[in-house]
Amino acid sequence: MMNPIYLDYAATTPMDPEVAQKMAACLTLEGNFANPASRSHRYGWMAEEAVENARGQMAKIINADVREIVWTSGATEANNLAIKGVAQQHSNKGKHIITSVIEHKAVLDPCKYLEEQGFEVTYLPPQSDGTVSVQQVKEALRPDTILVSLMFVNNELGCINPVQKIGELCRDNDVLFHVDGAQAVGKISVDVQAQNIDLLSVSGHKFYGPKGIGILYVKRGVKIAAQIHGGGHERGMRSGTLATHQIVGLGEAAHMSQQLLTQEEARLRALRELLWTGLQDIEGVTLNGSAQNSVPGILNISFTGVDGESLLLSLADLAVSSGSACNSATMAPSYVLKAIGLSDELAHASIRFSMGRFSTIEELNQAVGSVNTAVKRLRGLVP
Question: Does 250 share its domain with 337?
């Protein structure tokens, strides 16, 4: 049985073979396996050197200083560290946080937790294209606001928030700005300095690196309270033995993604256009989000008059998603799609196609044919 065509790169990406090769060299006695904190022998020195090289690679892709990179287990931990860390560190200044209703659960759940601890959270509704405007944030700011936390790119729609201008607004008002960059880094240009970002969460498996590793960028001078204690690693912000092999893999993934960024962005935009061109003539088809203000690899489409679950089952030759991978276990309609105005029925009948480094024109053409056939069959137009 042939594997389905993989079009779920927004959920996770396959590790690039070159990344896997670099990681494999950090696992056995013959390789660079040691604890980077072991500074009394050569094995530890070599591991520390590899970790710091990867830190430099990760800093370079977001235009940060190496001292601003904190290793985490991924974007979920990074989001928790940023949001809870700021809240606990700066509660004497205020207890008001601003976010949006369509953030990833790794942002919404920490915010809910903080509400239970006495903090107040303003949840901004998105505009019809899935973005949050600068004006919305401006109107929500208060004297006791200590943090604005918004995603760079929405994981279901692919739309891009006006991060640079929101960051400028936050800086002018002495409010910290946290950005969930899981769907942005390695896919579009991210520059924490030019975009006025104070804290940025990144996950390695979203750009061809390993799962279980990520970073939190913490701008120099920004103070946050640690959430994990026990050893004082990462300048006291995140204790725990560093996983050399995963960190090396993340660094290599960042290095490769930066080198390929311009050509991959253009190639994926062409593939996205090919897919949309092949599907937009189906009756009752709607593009969710924005056709222009979007990352190149994500396309979210609704199919009127079709049951979403039946459509997914009919597309057995395609690996696609009906929403965020972190919420796919539930059959509830996407809260993101409902927030931009879709009915439960239409939200259920929506599919997220996400393309990546290993996607081909042939695969996209096959996907177009499969979707057309499946939709017609479900509408009773073909036997």
Answer: no
